[in-house]
């Protein structure tokens, strides 16, 4: 069965695993998903990841991050913005801010998949993939 929005599926898996307080979650591999997970690691929302190869199929195992006790979630919200039915683009002048700068917006630009802060520095716009806070 083919999936119509694999990025939304990955974000939903992370959200559900985070709510259920799992240590890790597995998602099917793709380059854009790997770029998104790299940003989540750099920004401190997840501990890390590893790519597992099982023959032809690859999987990304994402290790989730919590506070001092497991009741403190680092990711309090994750939301898909641009989707296949309604693409959302933002120019370099109208880049979104998430919760007044407390969260991040993940964008797909001609410079690759970057955060809104990096996009402001480089003065580029692109497709708004997701918000994380």
User: In whole angstroms, how far apart are the ends?
Assistant: 31 Å
Number of DSSP-assigned strands: 8
Counting DSSP H or I runs of 4 or more residues, the number of helices is 3
Unreliable segments of 5+ consecutive residues: none
Structural category = alpha+beta
Question: What is the average of the pLDDT values?
Answer: 94
Return Rg in Å.
Answer: 15 Å
How would you sum up the major sheet?
5 strands, antiparallel
Structure write-up:
The N and C termini lie far apart (31 Å). A hairpin with a 2-residue loop joins strand 2 (46-54) and strand 3. With 133 residues, the protein is of the alpha+beta class. The chain has helices at 6-19, 31-42, 116-122; strands spanning 24-28, 46-54, 57-64, 78-80, 89-90, 104-109, 112-115, 126-132. The strands form 2 sheets. Strands 4, 5, 6, 7 and 8 form a 5-stranded antiparallel sheet that branches. It is 25% helix and 33% strand. It contains 3 helices and 8 strands, in the order αβαββββββαβ. The protein is globular.
Give a nutshell description of this structure.
With about 130 residues, the protein is α+β, with helices and mostly antiparallel strands.
């Amino acid at each position: 069965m083919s999936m119509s929005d694999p990025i939304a599926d990955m974000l939903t898996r992370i959200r559900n695993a985070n709510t259920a307080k799992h240590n890790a979650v597995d998602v099917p591999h793709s380059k854009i998903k790997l770029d998104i997970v790299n940003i989540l690691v750099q920004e401190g929302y997840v501990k890390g990841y590893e790519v597992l190869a099982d023959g032809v199929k690859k999987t990304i195992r994402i290790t989730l991050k919590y506070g001092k006790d497991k009741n403190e979630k680092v990711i309090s919200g994750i939301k898909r913005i641009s989707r296949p039915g309604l693409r959302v683009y933002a120019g370099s002048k109208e880049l979104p801010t998430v919760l007044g700068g407390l969260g991040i917006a993940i964008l797909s630009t001609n410079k690759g998949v970057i955060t809104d802060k990096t996009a402001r520095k480089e003065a580029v716009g692109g497709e708004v993939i997701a918000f994380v806070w």
